[in-house]
Amino acid sequence: MFGRGAPKKSDNTKYYEILGVSKSASPDDLKKAYKKAAIKNHPDKGGDPEKFKELAQAYEVLSDPEKREIYDQYGEDALKEGMSGGGGHDPFDIFSSFFGGGGFPGGGSRVRRQRRGEDVVHPLKVSLEDLYLGTSKKLSLSRNVLCSKCNGKGSKSGASMQCSGCQGSGMKVSMRHLGANMIQQMQHPCNDCKGTGETISDKDRCPQCKGEKVVQHKKVLEVHVEKGMQNGQKITFPGEADEAPDTVTGDIVFVLQQKENPKFKRNGEDLFVEHSLSLTEALCGFQFALTHLDGRQLLIKSNPGEVVKPDSYKAINDEGMPMYQRPFMKGKLYIHFTVEFPESLTLDQVKALETILPARPVSQLTDMEIDECEETTLHDVNMDEESRRKKQSPQESYDEDDDMPGGAQRVQCAQQ
Question: Where is this region: Disordered (predicted)?
Fold first, then answer.
């Protein structure tokens, strides 16, 4: 079968004995035997590493029909001589692939599916000028990193024991009585092992991390705030959060928090600013300098003969916020105008204005109709204060009528 120099038959029962099955064992029998023995002898569970390696080698050969046939006829020597390879794979890889890479009950660190660590979120206060111009901020942060002396094992030898308090699960269950025939069951991390499922003897603890597996480390991060970024936007540093054994390190996330600007308000890519004009400026023209967020002076002026109405807006193109990742494109700058009127005018001023301003509309009332009207007096009023007063005392007007001086009562007119 193998040509010249084929090896003689040798022991072909060793692999079956290692797995504890007969030579007639089916593939399912092999799987069950390997699973049971591999879990028992896994090094991460305190098992014998050599035994674990032998189990992997035996299962690799016997689970392959071609290798099993060669082994049954010519024994282990034929495989070692390279007749069909075999026995050369990492036993942990075999174990991992056998269990689908998802670990096993109580799992070992080598094949355990790694959980992801939590992200660390920090607020970062920035001014509107920072978002307009862009800026860089250096921040010093403290984080946990795996101990370099023990490589995150927590022990000098690199070994650990299963926590007896939680049986290696990392969690404990406690019961609390809520009343008659009522019990609440609660699950919480084990205090003995801090949820790791492992304990380290005092003598074997790493002198650098004291068995904690991680140490504190300070690091300076430079946060680049780009032009046009928004309030609430996130800047992420992948894998810079706290490290932990058997854990994919989370991210550090900075969330921008824009501080209020006394002059400018932002809405997306646009800027808004308030400006008050006197009545003379609104009617006869105005001119003023506006200091922008980058320190430039913008000359703002009206067109000749233009009248600016109260509560009106005017816009300047390309003077708003830079667009994020397109900083050479900008939104608009809107100016909201309010007009301040004089408190009063003299008779001479009124007559002078009447000669300039458009004529008053002609009254539609005749002199006789005016004589029949009742005179009224206008008072200044603050509507916010009026609303507040009415909400506080809605029955005030009725109460005043009921308490007329001298005990006077309301008099109703008798119908004739």
Answer: 376-416
Q: Are the C-beta atoms of 193 and 199 separated by less than 8 Å?
A: yes
Distance CA 99, CA 31 (A): 11
Contacts of residue 403, Cβ cutoff 8 Å, sequence gap at least 6:
none
Sign of CA dihedral 388, 393, 397, 400: negative
Report the CATH number of the 264-340 domain. Answer: 2.60.260.20
Q: Are 163 and 45 in contact (CB under 8 A)?
A: no
Closest CA to 132 of 263, 292, 254: 292
- CB contact at 8 A, 122 and 255: yes
The rounded distance, in Å, linking the Cα atoms of 235 and 252 is: 8
Lookup: tokens for 236? 């992420």
- Most confident range (mean pLDDT) of 51-60, 179-188, 341-350 is 341-350
| Residue 75: strand, helix, or coil | coil
Domain pair 14-98 / 118-158+216-259, same fold: no
Q: Which of 335, 340, 319 is nearest to 263 (CA)?
A: 335
Mind listing the pLDDT tens digit for each residue in 136-179? 999 999 999 999 888 888 888 777 777 777 777 778 777 777 76
- The CATH code of the domain at 118-158+216-259 is 2.60.260.20
Give the CATH fold of the 14-98 domain. Answer: Helix Hairpins (1.10.287)
Helix (H, G, I), strand (E, B) or coil at 202: helix
Distance of CA 416 to CAs 34, 412, 413, Å?
Answer: 116, 12, 9
Domain ranges in the chain?
14-98, 118-158+216-259, 264-340
Residue 383's φ and ψ, nearest 5 degrees, are -65, -30
User: How far, in Å, CA of 17 to CA of 80, rounded?
Assistant: 19
Q: How far apart are CA 198 and CA 107, in angstroms?
A: 12
Q: How far is residue 34's CA from residue 19's CA, in Å, rounded to a whole number?
A: 6
Does the pLDDT value for residue 260 go beyond 80? yes
